[in-house]
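Review form for a predicted model. The reviewer records the input and the model, then writes brief findings.
Reviewer: anonymous (R2)
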Amino acid sequence: MLSIWWTTAKMGFLQNRHLLGLADAPAEDIRLILENAFTFREVLDRPIKKVPTLQGKTVVNLFFEPSTRTRISFELAQKRLSADTVNFSASASSLQKGESFKDTAQNIEAMKVDCIIMRHPVPGASIHLTKYVDSVVVNAGDGAHEHPTQALLDMMSLQERFGRIEGLKVGIVGDISHSRVAGSNILGLQKMGAEVTLCGPPTMMPLGVGALGVTVNHNLDEVLDWADAINVLRIQRERMGASYFPSVREYRHLFGITQERIERLKKQLIIMHPGPMNRGVEIDSDVADSENAIILDQVLNGVAIRMAVLYLLLGDKPEE
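Model under review:
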């Protein structure tokens, strides 16, 4: 089984030792991750969904924020690759007793771990972590900065549906300024040759958005007419210090992906959402559950993408 696996996986090395974001990830690395992810997707469709690729490796999931999809997805990816997995919860750790971030990280690494997957509410936290540990670090989301594996699974889902990413027209709709998903998607999609348009309230657009090389259009219906696919973002109330729109009703009227809007289109529009969804706010249930939506495909592809990332960062070349 192992020899068969090595003939199908595309062994290679990422140019960066860690995956901290897509800002410094070259297009070649993104292509390599996607190629391997499609191979791992085949593994996930087998009766036995496991390969021995990372047997003997230890991975710690260091999560300082609540998470369902990302945490379970990473843990499943580790187990599918036969790695040993340790889960860390900040709420049940010595951080509650006053231990510093540095001491927590260094104590974990002293137990001889090979990789740390970290989610943290502070932008740049994963970069900070690399100063304290020698383990490979993967950013599982840092504040409103980046969420690289989410963007990678979004790109995989688009390639799976369209057969390509280059030349696609992708709209990102909603709370852009607070979204790490938007940050990584903008970077990754443009590196892979897609056109990106941002749509949402002016109060939810980041400062200097024009420097990102994207188009901004506050008219949702125009964006839907233009796009091949849209990525609908959640309204992140937990990251907002004040109200950024008058009411949920008004937001839904202006920027909600409603069934009525989709029915007016004279084409099939692919709809994505990183989750969790606020049904009835940024997206209607009928739309989220429709044939146009590939939201559950994104979830499955997330496991394959994270398997590919871990494989490329931690995997050893087979002996000749």
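Findings: The first strand starts at residue 58 and ends at 63.
Further findings: The radius of gyration is 20 Å.
Recommendation: see findings above.
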